[in-house]
């Protein structure tokens, strides 16, 4: 079995859906599960509709639903040139839009919002499935992700549930070769419709790959692999041909948007290679993520915004037994994970990316220490094989950053990561300086 995931741009129009169908339908391909995102722009449109409903603006929300519905009718007409096929698809598309409209008559709940956000992937998979089966005349099974993708009580994917229920969902189709399912959407531990957070279709693909013991997971997107730096910010970036699971996991977690932050973990756990490929250039080699690592010292740089730095200072207690534990316990109580940490004789600095419970955390920390908070910080993560740092990579990186105020540095925590905290205003300059200093070739 292989798992192939196609992102929003890859299914962003009728033409693109036809190109995806070309890549997935050939009978000589082995058994495969195709995971699709919503068409590009759809999830954003659904977020906006939910926002309007939260604000009580039912008229604007309803108008936006109608605009989206018309867009999907146009895509269906273009993709499915046989009227009977288009009509049947449009009837099903309209049921999805009706499920949104049904939520406009009462104030929107958090559960209602999740139902709205789930519609994009249901719409895109329906269209591609109808094109493959009814227009190309190829057999394909539309698998409902909501029957097997599930979170546990901690809102983490429930791998055992997914494995068991994916197997039973596939069981009636022993002879089928092509399956199409929704990325991103899942059910909560209580069985309510939920999702794997923005960009979550990558995570779906990896979880499904792990559950199906796939031999490869392919992430098809709009670029020819994972680049050495953020191509939206830095000119002249290039694709990295091979990354280890650890390197890719660090880059995804620390901001390389091409991969959802957690999406490497299930593949790494099961040793399943992940290939990043370009739908617009299918013959390009892309990036292979596997257990192998190359020799280069620093391979790539990524940046994660929205970071809050917290400095905890206590001349009386620092370095006393249990002080760090006391600090960590506060974060644990509020289920807030720490990304970076540095310590000195008199203070501890740490960073978090989820500041929703920050006021409660500060309240507790202030009981035993003085606390300062810096918002709008960015973690810049340098990833590669730094085992012995034979090439002086850290030196080179800091030389490149000589004009930039660095707030924190974390080096040595893992053999393939150096993390540097800067103010978000300095991010672009820092990424460009690192590019000039490390990757000019
Ligand atoms: P999809 O919709 O297929 O999931 P995304 O937009 O989520 O695609 O991810 C692909 C985009 O990620 C690229 O178009 C690129 O702009 C951006 N990106 C950011 N950092 C990197 C990187 N290091 N390498 C490649 N792409 C990156
Ligand atoms: N459609 C979802 C999003 O836009 C999931 C994804 O595309 O991966 O975030
Ligand atoms: Mg994505």
TrEMBL record:
Group of enzyme by EC: transferase
Q: Which Pfam families match?
A: AA_kinase (PF00696), ACT_9 (PF22468)
- GO biological process terms on file: homoserine biosynthetic process; lysine biosynthetic process via diaminopimelate; threonine biosynthetic process
Keyword annotations for this protein, in alphabetical order, are: Amino-acid biosynthesis, ATP-binding, Kinase, Nucleotide-binding, Transferase
Q: Where is the Aspartokinase ACT domain?
A: 380-436
Q: Which residues form the Aspartate/glutamate/uridylate kinase domain?
A: 2-278
Task: Fetch the InterPro entries from UniProt.
Answer: AceGlu_kinase-like_sf, ACT-like_dom_sf, ACT_Aspartokinase, Asp/Glu/Uridylate_kinase, Asp_kin_monofn, Asp_kinase, AsparK_Bifunc_asparK/hSer_DH, Aspartate_kinase_CS
Under Enzyme Commission nomenclature, its number is 2.7.2.4
Annotated PROSITE patterns: ASPARTOKINASE
Instruction: Identify the CDD domains for this entry.
Output: AAK_AK-HSDH-like, ACT_AKiii-LysC-EC-like_1
The pathway entry for this protein reads as: Amino-acid biosynthesis; L-lysine biosynthesis via DAP pathway; (S)-tetrahydrodipicolinate from L-aspartate: step 1/4; Amino-acid biosynthesis; L-methionine biosynthesis via de novo pathway; L-homoserine from L-aspartate: step 1/3; Amino-acid biosynthesis; L-threonine biosynthesis; L-threonine from L-aspartate: step 1/5
Q: Which residues bind substrate?
A: 43, 121
- GO CC annotation, single: cytosol
User: In the record, what terms sit under GO molecular function?
Assistant: aspartate kinase activity; ATP binding
Positions binding ATP in this chain are 5-8, 221-222, 232
* Catalytic activity as recorded in UniProt: L-aspartate + ATP = 4-phospho-L-aspartate + ADP
Q: Which protein family is named in the record?
A: Belongs to the aspartokinase family.
Protein name as catalogued: Aspartokinase
């Amino acid at each position: 079995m292989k798992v192939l995931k196609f992102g929003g741009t890859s299914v962003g129009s009728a033409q693109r859906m036809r190109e995806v169908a070309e890549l997935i339908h050939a009978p000589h391909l082995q058994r495969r599960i195709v995971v699709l995102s919503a068409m590009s722009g759809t999830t954003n449109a659904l977020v906006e509709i939910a926002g309007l409903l939260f604000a009580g603006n039912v008229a604007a929300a309803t108008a936006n639903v109608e605009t989206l519905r018309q867009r999907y009718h146009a895509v269906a007409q273009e993709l499915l040139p046989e009227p009977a096929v288009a009509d049947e698809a449009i009837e099903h598309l309209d049921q999805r839009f009706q499920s949104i409209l049904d939520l406009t008559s009462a104030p929107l709940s958090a559960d209602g919002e999740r139902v709205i956000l789930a519609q994009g992937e249901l719409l895109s998979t329906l269209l591609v499935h109808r094109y493959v089966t009814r227009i190309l005349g190829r057999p394909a099974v539309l698998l409902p992700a909501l029957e097997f993708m599930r979170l546990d009580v901690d809102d983490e994917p429930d791998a055992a549930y997914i494995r068991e229920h994916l197997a039973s969902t596939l069981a009636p189709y022993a002879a089928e070769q092509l399956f199409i399912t929704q990325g991103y959407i899942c059910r909560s531990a209580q069985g309510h419709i939920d999702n794997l957070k923005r960009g979550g279709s990558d995570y779906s693909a990896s979880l499904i790959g792990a559950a199906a013991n796939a031999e490869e997971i392919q992430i098809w997107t709009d670029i020819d692999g994972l680049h050495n730096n953020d191509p939206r910010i830095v000119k002249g970036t290039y694709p990295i041909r091979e990354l280890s699971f650890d390197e890719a996991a660090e880059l995804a977690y620390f901001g390389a948007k091409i991969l959802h932050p957690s999406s490497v973990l299930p593949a790494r756990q099961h040793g399943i290679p992940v290939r990043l490929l370009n739908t617009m250039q299918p013959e390009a080699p892309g990036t292979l993520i596997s257990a192998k690592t190359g020799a280069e010292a620093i391979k790539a740089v990524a940046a994660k915004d929205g970071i809050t730095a917290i400095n905890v200072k206590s001349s009386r207690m620092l370095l006393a037994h249990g002080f760090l534990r006391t600090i960590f316990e506060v974060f644990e109580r509020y289920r807030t994970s720490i990304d970076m940490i540095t310590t000195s004789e008199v203070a501890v600095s740490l960073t978090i990316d989820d500041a929703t419970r920050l006021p409660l955390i500060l309240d507790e920390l202030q009981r035993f220490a003085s606390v300062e908070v810096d918002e709008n910080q960015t973690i810049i993560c340098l990833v590669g094989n730094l085992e012995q740092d034979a090439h002086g990579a850290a030196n080179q990186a800091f030389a490149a950053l000589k004009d930039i105020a660095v707030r924190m540095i974390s080096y040595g925590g893992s053999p393939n990561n150096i993390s540097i905290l800067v103010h978000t205003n300095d991010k672009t300059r820092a990424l460009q300086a690192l590019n000039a200093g490390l990757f000019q070739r």
